[in-house]
Amino acid sequence: MKWMLRNLSFFFPVLLAFNPPLSNLPLDLAGVVVDARDAGRSTCLVQLRPGPKTTGPLHPGENAFEMAEIRHIGSRGVIVRNVLTNRLECLAFPKDRPAPSPAPPAPPFPRLIPLGPDKIEAEIPEEAIRYYTGNLAEILNSASAIPLLKNGRDGGQTIEGFEIGRIKSGGIVERLGFRDGDVILAVGGEPLTSLESAIKFVGRAATMTRAELTVRRGGRKLTLIFRRK
After folding, report:
1. pTM beyond cutoff 0.70
2. CA dist 35 to 22, 72, 146, 213, Å?
3. 190: which strand partners?
4. CATH architecture group of domain 111-228
5. Domain 2-96, what fold?
């Protein structure tokens, strides 16, 4: 692996020449240490915006907050693969980021339609989907999602689903019908039993026209249906 990184590092200056776009992920560089002899030994620290949470030293091939795979570490920036979009982007130091443009006007809110005692449909306007896919940080700040573990038969632990908490009042997660303590068990009948399955769903969300989630709320199961309007 180290041999591969050392040899592939020859091509990364070429990638830099094409100026990968600045990443829209809520991540900033907190520091870099560049090894000129062996690119695979270079390290970086990545900070999650807007809070002070920072990764430990990361090397090429490792992930920052399960959102960005480190590809090349340079003194002025780090090339990453955006896990959600599978494209190359650049992480920069906060001082090197352009001044933020004025926030676009808030999009229309989703409309919740009860379809029964245990089924709710949310109509999501197209403008809202475009707005939130371009403002990922706003979604991440609207709530937390923590893997809910259960004991397996072999004595180990497995992920049963993802528990939603710390929902921001008036935020998009609340507007979609979620409540603190809801546990997302499955999407389209596919259980969310790993971090990879959750990331896969987030990556597909922007292009999906309909999504059906199985949610446990208290002692009962609900079906939340999200549909593009």
Report:
1. no
2. 23, 11, 36, 46
3. 187
4. Roll (2.30)
5. SH3 type barrels. (2.30.30)
